[in-house]
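Hi support team,

I'm filing this because I wasn't sure whether my run with zinc ion finished correctly. The job status page said complete, but I'd like someone to confirm that the output block is well-formed before I use it downstream. Pasting the exact inputs I used:
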Amino acid sequence: DISCLICGGTGCPSCKHSGWLELCPCGMIHPNVLREGGIDPDEYTGFAFGLGLTRLAMMKYGIKDIRDLNSGSLKALSQFTDDK
Ligand SMILES: [Zn+2]
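And here is everything the job wrote out:
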């Protein structure tokens, strides 16, 4: 987790008013997921993690709503450049 760079850690809609953003979400894999993958959850456990590149882009460019990155709108996306 990092301190929200949008609000400086005071809380805002981007960080769900917590002041923190999770960049590398992780956790234990649910036994049903292992079971559906043909793995015996009584014998094995799993741990999953990922790196949220969109969260990094949000912090770098000050994007308040992560959904803007997936909007497909060139008008919306073209405002996020290094030129500013
Ligand atoms: Zn915030």
